[in-house]
Design brief:
Length: 95
C-alpha cells in the first residue's frame, strides 16, 4: 500500500505543473548533494573509475528506490550495505 500510495502521489504531482516544478527542484537538490559526495570520493582517490558521478548515484539509488516504491518493501541496513558493496566492487573492476 505504501509503494502504491507513493506512486499515486508522484503521478498526481506530475499532473500539476507548479507542484511538478517544485518536486523536480527538490529532487535535483538532493541529487546534487549525492553527486557532490561521490565527486569528493573521486578527488580523494577513494573512487577510481571513468564513470560519471551521476552514474554512480544512479547505481546506488536505483535498487533502493525500486525496493521502496516498486515493491513497497522496507529497507534494513544490511540491504543498503550489500548495494554499496556491489557498486563499489563494480567500480573497482571498471577503472
Amino acid at each position: 500500500p505504501l509503494g502504491q500510495g507513493i506512486l499515486r502521489i508522484m503521478q498526481t504531482e506530475r499532473a500539476d505543473p507548479e507542484v511538478d516544478a517544485l518536486t523536480k527542484s527538490l529532487r535535483a537538490e538532493q541529487r546534487a548533494l549525492r553527486r557532490a559526495m561521490i565527486e569528493r570520493g573521486f578527488k580523494r582517490g577513494d573512487l577510481k573509475t571513468r564513470m560519471s558521478a551521476e552514474m554512480v548515484v544512479d547505481l546506488v539509488t536505483a535498487p533502493v528506490v525500486t525496493r521502496l516504491i516498486t515493491f513497497g518493501d522496507t529497507l534494513d541496513e544490511s540491504y543498503v550495505d550489500n548495494v554499496l558493496d556491489v557498486v563499489l566492487a563494480g567500480l573497482a573492476a571498471c577503472p
